[in-house]
């Protein structure tokens, strides 16, 4: 395995995931794993975990980079993200390990992955490549996820929900259509929701760079969370 990857993401990396337990007994078997943006675990992801827990589901926001290891400058964020998604095998091995650490007793859990931006892609990676995954929800995530080497190796039982800004410059029409064709070829249960007049990072209150295609949209953010709520209830 790439030693640089190990040094950045595994060797002596101490993590503290953010865990919130849901209070509904009928939903206790459902564990939501939240993958962060390329900024790492922040108050945003913790707030999402709190909102999901308020619906009765247990949620864990993943500490992707480790305690006090979140990149700050844009170049650092891009470099760390690039290293993370450079190769499929180490990425999926890391995600599997983090999922197990986040879910404690993984046996018997219905695990649904949710993510934002980079985390949206990671949720799709987890849904397709981790056998423990029952579902995956991507908020403004890229469609550049690693495809399975063969249909046999794909986790085709996972349900997929993509929540996408139609004006997101990072997801072209070709990218969207190719991803849909791919999931369809595997016979997977997928939904791809486009929101009109909506850019990248529409869930993030801090996003305010419309010149570069990134803008918070509070109305769409609320609407998209409603789609997540409905999706999670399918697993009860």
UniProtKB/TrEMBL annotation:
Annotated Gene3D superfamilies: alpha/beta hydrolase
Protein name (record): Dienelactone hydrolase
GO MF term set: hydrolase activity
Keywords of the record: Hydrolase
Matches recorded under SUPFAM superfamilies: alpha/beta-Hydrolases
Source organism per UniProt: Marinomonas rhizomae
UniProt domain Dienelactone hydrolase: residue ranges: 30-234
Keyword Zinc listed: no
Superkingdom: Bacteria
């Amino acid at each position: 395995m790439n030693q640089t990857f190990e040094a950045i993401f595994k060797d002596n990396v101490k993590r503290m995931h953010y865990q919130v337990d849901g209070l509904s007994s009928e939903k206790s078997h459902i564990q939501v794993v939240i993958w962060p943006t390329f900024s790492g675990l922040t108050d945003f992801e913790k707030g999402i975990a709190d909102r999901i827990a308020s619906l009765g589901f247990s949620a864990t926001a993943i500490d992707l980079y480790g305690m006090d290891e979140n990149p700050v400058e844009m170049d650092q964020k891009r470099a760390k993200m690039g290293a993370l998604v450079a190769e499929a095998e180490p990425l999926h091995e890391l995600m599997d390990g983090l999922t197990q650490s986040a879910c404690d007793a993984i046996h018997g859990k219905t695990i649904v992955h949710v993510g934002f931006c980079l985390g949206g892609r990671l949720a799709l990676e987890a849904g397709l490549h981790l056998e423990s995954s029952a579902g995956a929800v991507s908020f403004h995530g890229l469609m550049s996820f690693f495809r399975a080497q063969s249909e046999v190796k794909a986790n085709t039982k996972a349900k997929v929900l993509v929540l996408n800004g139609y004006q997101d410059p990072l997801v072209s029409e070709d990218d969207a259509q190719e991803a849909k064709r791919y999931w369809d070829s595997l016979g997977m249960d997928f939904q791809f929701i486009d929101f009109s007049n909506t850019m990248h990072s529409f869930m993030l209150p801090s996003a305010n760079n419309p010149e570069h295609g990134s803008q918070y949209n509070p109305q769409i953010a609320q609407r998209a969370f409603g789609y997540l709520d409905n999706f999670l209830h399918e697993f009860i």
